[in-house]
Every structure is written in structure tokens, then in C-alpha cells.
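Class, look over these C-alpha cells:
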Amino acid sequence: MNISIDLNSAVPLFEQLRGQLRSLVSSGELAPGTRLPTVRRLAEELSLAPNTVARAYRELEAGGVIETRGRHGSFVSSHGDPTRRQAQEAAAEYAARIGELGMPMPEAIEFAASALRSLPSR
């Protein structure tokens, strides 16, 4: 697991850690069920305060990215990437609504593609 923290960044340390762990899960580098280092061990490895790591873990757990199993530790959620899951749910809701409206699929796809193209670049 390759994580680097920029102490000079304006981004809070816990947010840098949270974002990098989430990216590792999204990319598949951290597969579902992977055990994460303990808060203390990761804090030592990254030269961070344990509370910083604990906050990142709490926020990841609240977002469904990781799950804590008491004394057994923290693991990448077995439910997969929550961003992808939420996107699939949104797509299913869109498809259901389009079906209710009786819109032809090619037109519905073009509406969705147009809406996505209008989003700011990331």
C-alpha cells in the first residue's frame, strides 16, 4: 500500500489519507476483505498522530468504504466500492423513470450522455 502525505499541503492530513485509501479501494489495489494496518501502526508508518488516522478510518467507515470488526481490525468493505454502488443505483433509478415515461432508449442514453458532458471536468 503506497500512501504519501504532504505535510505542506493545504489539504488536511486526515483528508489526504482518506482520499488516498478511497482511491486504493476504487482502483482495486485494496480488494474487498483486505485487512488495513492498525491505527497506531499506520500512524507510525506515516509519522501522523493516531487521531488523524482514526478520523480517516471513521470517515471511510461512515462512507461504507471500510468496516471495523472490533478487536479483529479494519477491513476494506466486502460490499465493494461505494461510489460505484451508488452510481449503479442512480442509473437504475434513471432507467426506471425513463421506462415510466416511455422514452426510447437511444434518446434516453443521449439525455444522460449530454448531462454527463455538461459536468465540470474532474
About this structure: The helical segments are 13-27, 39-46, 50-62, 82-101, 105-117.
